[in-house]
Write a structure and sequence with these properties.
The protein has about 450 residues and is α+β, with helices and mostly antiparallel strands. The protein folds into two domains: about 325 residues, no CATH class; about 120 residues, Glucose Permease (Domain IIA) (Distorted Sandwich). The chain contains three helices and 13 strands. Strands 4, 5, 6, 7, 8, 9, 10, 11 and 12 form a nine-stranded antiparallel beta sheet that branches. It has a two-stranded parallel ribbon with strand order 1-13. Helix 1 packs antiparallel against helix 3 and helix 2 runs antiparallel to helix 3. It starts with a helix and ends with a strand. The N terminus is likely disordered.
């Protein structure tokens, strides 16, 4: 027994050292990852400040673009008004040109009429000239035609010729004068119309010159504003793209942070699993040592019994039983209402929760003495641990061992199931001494 106590103390002293050996490297790994996360967060803050600056610049550019567009609209409105004025001037020019054409037609008609009247006057003059000569000759050959009172008929005839000659000449002269007056009026009207046309043309040419200048100035201004607008639009687009790039970069950094956090979480889980594994292995080693010492005590007691040395025989302690599954305890040891039959029955063990297929481990080292289907228990394994102590594992979904196999503490012997009288997957576990059920809770060591 003293030897057993020394071994237990040695294992207890070595256990913290075994558990603490890798902690420095693990802490260094996590510290490095946390430092990387802080760097990523600082980089995200810098990118977010840069993104905010870009957004402010984009707002300024948009406002400036709106002002430029408003100025361009004002120029377009002024140009539209000028174009309307030019359209009215063009209409007036067309009307003046029509008036000019009509005046020119009137001038042409007057000149043609003047020529006709000239020909008519010439003909009349020629005819009058002949009449005057005839009358003159007739009178010349009449003796004393101005002084003598001769034949009354002759005098009357003379008076008629004189009157007739004067009347025709007067008519022709009046007609000639009227025609020349009409012609002069037509020429004056044509000249006035022509002067108006020339003035209107000069005004329109000046207006067209001014319009050309205005259009050149407007085009230059519009080209400049269009260039500025294109620059602003390109700047806005570039800043929007830069902001999007930063946003994507921030998303990537957040993804990196999430990945590092996942890595830290996995590492922490791995550390916990590793610590759990080391604790479990240490516990198994301790229990195995206890089991070996117990077996040595049993062997010693057997030898003493064979040699007849009964005074120094020690009663062997029960083996250190290891919890066979990781799940929590459901139904406990003692009387309970049976979940299937609904009657009060004695429950000879503990029920551990779990999922079908979860591993079931040997609670202590020993020999498999049963691995078979039993009606209420379903698939059942019984292990003999010596000294009259056995453990039972029921409702299994499969066997990993056979009758006669030697198993070590913590070795997988089967899997959780729901065979036999069971309402769901779980492990029914019993501890027996010389076939009599014992409360497993009084003999079980926890898993850490």
């Amino acid at each position: 027994m003293h030897k057993l106590l020394r071994i237990v103390c040695l294992l207890a002293a070595m256990l913290p050292l075994a558990l603490s050996t890798p902690s420095a490297a693990q802490d260094s790994f996590i510290d490095e990852r946390e430092r990387q996360i802080e760097e990523k967060k600082r980089e995200i803050d810098a990118r977010q400040r840069e993104q905010e600056a870009l957004k402010r610049q984009a707002l300024f550019a948009i406002e400036e673009l709106n002002v430029t567009n408003a100025q361009i609209e004002e120029v377009d409105a002024a140009l539209t008004e000028v174009n309307n004025w030019i359209a009215a001037a063009a209409t007036r020019l067309s009307a003046v040109e029509l008036s000019q054409t009509a005046a020119e037609e009137r001038v042409t008609a007057a000149r043609e009429r003047d020529a006709e009247l000239g020909e008519e006057i010439a003909a009349i003059r020629e005819r009058l000239r002949g009449q005057v000569v005839d009358i003159y000759l007739d009178l010349v050959y009449e003796q004393n035609f101005l002084l003598q009172d001769g034949d009354p008929n002759r005098n009357a005839r003379r008076q008629y010729y004189i009157e007739e000659l004067g009347a025709d000449a007067q008519v022709l002269i009046d007609r000639l004068r009227q025609t020349k007056d009409d012609q002069q009026i037509a020429v004056q009207q044509a000249e006035q119309a022509q002067a108006e046309i020339e003035q209107a043309q000069a005004e329109i040419e000046q207006a067209l010159t001014d319009l050309a200048e205005l259009r050149r100035a407007q085009k230059k201004l519009q080209d400049e504003w269009n260039r500025k607008r294109q620059e602003l639009e390109a700047r806005i687009e570039n800043e929007a793209q830069a902001s999007l790039d930063i946003e994507n970069e921030i998303a990537g950094l957040n993804q990196d942070i999430s990945s590092i956090e996942d890595e830290i979480e996995r590492e922490q889980e791995r550390i916990l699993v590793e610590e759990e594994r080391r604790k479990r292995e240490a516990e198994l080693a301790r229990l195995a040592e206890l089991d070996r010492n117990r077996q040595a005590d049993l062997d010693l007691a057997a030898r003493q019994e064979r040699l007849g040395q009964f005074d120094d025989i020690e009663i062997p302690a029960p083996p250190p039983f290891f919890q066979p599954v990781a799940g929590p305890v459901g139904s406990g040891y003692g009387n309970r209402v049976h979940p299937i039959f609904g009657t009060v029955r004695f429950h000879a063990g503990l029920d551990f929760s779990g999922n079908t297929g979860d591993p079931v481990e040997a609670a202590a080292s020993g020999t498999v003495i049963q691995a078979q289907l039993r009606s209420g228990y379903g698939n059942t394994i019984i292990i003999d641990h010596g000294g009259g102590w056995t453990t039972l594992y029921a409702h299994l979904s499969r066997f990993n061992v056979y009758v006669g196999d030697e198993v070590a503490i913590g070795e997988t012997i089967g899997a959780i199931g729901s065979t036999g009288w069971s309402t769901g997957p779980h492990l029914h576990f019993e501890v027996r001494y010389r076939g009599s059920p014992q409360d497993p809770a009084n003999h079980l060591y926890s898993r850490g």
